[in-house]
Amino acid sequence: MPESVDFQGYRKDSVTGIPTFLFAIDAVNVEQRVLSFGPSQVAIELGFPDSGTAKRFYRMDPSTVKSVAVSDGLIVRDAGEIKIPASERWAQTRVTLNPSKEKFVRSERTIAVRNALHVLPHARRQKRK
Known about the structure:
Layout: E1 5-12, E2 19-25, E3 28-38, E4 41-47, E5 55-60, E6 65-70, E7 75-77, E8 81-84, E9 90-97, E10 112-113, E11 117-124
Antiparallel strand pairs: 1-2, 2-3, 3-4, 4-9, 5-8, 5-11, 6-9, 7-8, 10-11
């Protein structure tokens, strides 16, 4: 988990009204949009406006995910982890959730969608040599 998450507000698209959430996660600036294209389908778009070398990961609860697709350059790992190389300035994950009749109730101090996604990517600090 990240050591620090600083929510810096949001901005709305002037045409669509869709918000872009602004964060600094372990000092890495992140811009996040959450979109839905149908029942149980969620797209998370992540922008990284600053260049850097921090390792970035996106995590989700794989037990609640039916399928996942990622943009070019991303690497899907076991246990619901997606690696986002430092060279990527934009990343997208499209997730189809398993059907659920349960209402979402936040059980952790993270932003989540239907208890399936921890939508905060996080940077792991690199060890200095």
